[in-house]
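Table S7 (text form). Paired inputs.
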Amino acid sequence: MQQVDMDIDLDAVRAVRVLGRGAMGTVFLVADGAGGPYALKVFDKRGPVSAAAREAGDAVRRARWEVSVLSGLAHPHLPTLLGHAETADLLASAVPYCSGGDLNELRYAQPDRVFSPAAIRFYVAELVSALAELHAAGIAYRDLKPENVLIRADGHVTLTDFDLCRLLPPKSPSASTSTSSSCSATSSPPPQLHGQGRSQYGGQLRRIFARSESSVAATLTSSSTSGQDSHNLAWFLKRSDGGADLLKKAKSARVSPLSHGKKKASFFSAASGGARERSFSFVGTQEYVAPEVVRGEGHEFAVDWWALGVLVYEMAYGKTPFRGRSRKETFRNVMLREPEFTADSRRRWSDLTDLITRLLDKHPAKRLGFAGGADEVRAHPFFAGVAWDLLGELSRPPYIPPPTDDIVECEGFSVVDYFNKLHEPPPQPEEFTEFSPEF
């Protein structure tokens, strides 16, 4: 991924269209002749903030925190911060445009709205690689769901939306990890970013966690075996409710093309000291929230492995495993019910169902990934044949979005004017000075 430090002048930015809106900003597609199209996420400091975002903390601080996190990322399956800017009213960050939409849209475009095991293996391997990088840097993502997995122009995936992530002290690293850079993190709070105009956040996050220059690509091979090395990261996930749909039987990793994409909301929480820090904040999408979060217990990186289990189940069965008719019922299912599998799927895809079951262990300490981190997940038999060091280089992705040649430089519309118009007072009703006597 190219890293470009763009000098963003918000007054001059003209967008092609709105890609999505969420509690923490509006995302625009901007056609830039020099570096190609990019996605510009803009947070309006004057705008209304959702109740969830308000409860989570200061929205402006969280928006700055997301920019700080982005500035420290350098990995094939994590977004590259191309540039950022801040004015008295707006805070913006630019990342590469992902023309393939999100994983949820892609799933809905599939027959029976499910992926084949081969396609699941491809996408989940890249997500494991991304989570390994974040965890090694001491970051718990805490918002993994299909809508936050974007499909790049080359067909590979990247995560988006980092305002819910939490900085935690990483576990002592093992000898090596095949897909993540060597990282360390302090237990000091995230940086408090201030100031108007174009803000330079990049170096501040890099002071929080030192990174090596290495980053990894990723892809599948039909012959090589997954590494069995063991890494010491850990943390929590999620579990339960039922849903027995048919797994797609095709062995091919090819998937059907799709149409559009989405976006989401978020949270920020400061990290305090402690060798084994845990977060007690309630964050995440309810169908992906881990049992320990529902119980109000402290949680760590294992919440991401739980969410991965929910995501894998949804990719295979077309629905999440614990969804209830209400929020309360969903949480009850998360706490008490086990994921349901068809007898046929257990027989035909035993490695896949075992992976889901182990990721959705309600006890964080027993969950896959708790004791051995990402390496423990990578060593699962479902990933046999994955060349972790070569993800993105050997195999053709299941779906490659069509070229975006139609996104050409055009007049577009002013991003600043877009927000200014939202704050214009509504037109006043006409005043009636006289009434008809016949009325």
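Next pair, protein 2 of 2.
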Amino acid sequence: MSAEQHAPNKRQRELLDKHLELVIEENKVTNLTRIVDWESAQVLHVEDSLAGLPEVEEALEGPYLDMGSGAGFPGIPLAIMTGRETLLADSVGKKTRALDSFAAELGIDDIVSTYHGRIEDLALQQPNHFSLVTARALSSLASLLELASPLLAKGGRLVCYKTHSESEELEHAREIARKLGMEFVSSRGFTLSDGETSRAIIVFRKRCNPSMKLPRRVGMAQKKPF
């Protein structure tokens, strides 16, 4: 699809702007983001979130999980643009309560809900459930692969938003993906409209069950990644 086909319509644009307004206002009492300047946040939060739409729209139909959702980027913008059943997960209760409030005020709480807890616990509760998982500047690729694998249905996609693409990190992730039941799909680097911020979208797909028992104990994926 062209960039025009991924552009928000008038109603979607209104919701995207309203979400950002809510985030900036809530940030006065809850630490959601360090970026509170409107123009910068439009680029670094909203535009960045929408940049993954081409990869997201290639995912199978079905429920979507945003890991470590924070202020709701990219989860809420992607829900607005795709209409997918969306679960925003975060381990901080103040953040999930804020996300619930955002979804209600935006009128999208019929498709958007939250999960307060650790991703490993969610994987035990909803194994092989999601068609799409996203993670934005959350952890290393190796850790993200391990966290996402038990959550994804076969054929489901992990779409990783990275601040940059390190060839060494990607090479390692591709090596361990197979034992985690995953396979590399694509990597795309680009620059945001400010002309200076580099980003990368990296995609993996669930091909089969992992060769080891997942999830491991809470925190192990980050502390001792494969």
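DSSP finds nine helices and seven strands in the chain.
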